[in-house]
Amino acid sequence: MKVVPFFVCVFISFLFAGCQQASLSVEDTGKSLTYSMDGKPLFSYNYAMVYPAPGVDTVYKRSGFIHPLKTLKGEVLTNCSPSDHYHHFGLWYAWTKTTFEGNEIDFWNLNKKQGTVRFRNFDRVSDTGFAATLDHVVYPDSPAEKVAMNEKLEVSIGKTDLPGYYIDYHTTLRCAGSSPITMEAYRYGGICIRTREDWNDQTAEMLTSEGLTRDQADGSRARWCYFQGKAGNEDACILIVANPSNLNYPEPLRVWDKTVNKPAGDVMWNFSPTKQQAFTLEPGKELSLSYRIYVLDRKIDAATAERL
Known about the structure:
The structure is a single chain. The chain is 8% helix and 44% strand. It is built from three helices and 21 strands. The strands form four sheets. It has an eight-stranded antiparallel beta sheet with strand order 8-9-10-11-21-17-16-14. A five-stranded antiparallel beta sheet has the order 5-13-19-18-15. A four-stranded antiparallel beta sheet has the order 1-2-3-4, with no helix packed on it. The termini are far apart.
């Protein structure tokens, strides 16, 4: 009988193990889709309406957002509806200053009662992601309520060669009717993340693709940006990479510096493609924006971010 050398067996076993795919699964709770990898919860996509804490004005309700966003080791990296900004929803998407049918519409600051974003339905749900339709609604819960834009959101999940995972986030906006809508030049709007409360200038660090730190980044343009620090007893990092096809790429950033949200000092930051230049979405046209969001169980450096 021919004997296969021991080191060959070890190599084949290693190669086979390296080719195995992570096991992804999804649980529908009736209110959210919760995704897991190898039995470890990753994030929840809240499709049912989420209301603020008792005693808080229900105008701050919202559906269609990601929270909690977790590391593989179970640490929560997002903050949802904090008392200083009830309209912040973990990882979410909304436009702030827009013009629709001659009126200013703010889909972000819900207390204005000018606009909101609502989940409508799922077009597809699988263990590796989902596709959903959302409505961007003007004057919600009033006789003047009307849908201004339809959003197609596609989310997929993948495994990295670093400890962690990534989310591919692809959104496509179209006018819901015959009226155009203008995303006016404004300092924030688009995809956004509110990070965990204990990540501040003392406990976490930010870096952009242009080498800028948290206190330098606001208003700059970037291809990627990360924020990282200790999450519980473990290191963690959120890296968001913008797709080169995105509007006004490299995209302008909105970043709270350490002076903005005292005393907590935690961070809200977003890629804001219309921060410096307005964009009008015409009927029959579309605006597509794509991001890869890495959630890692370790800190990285600029060279690693560039490779990713």
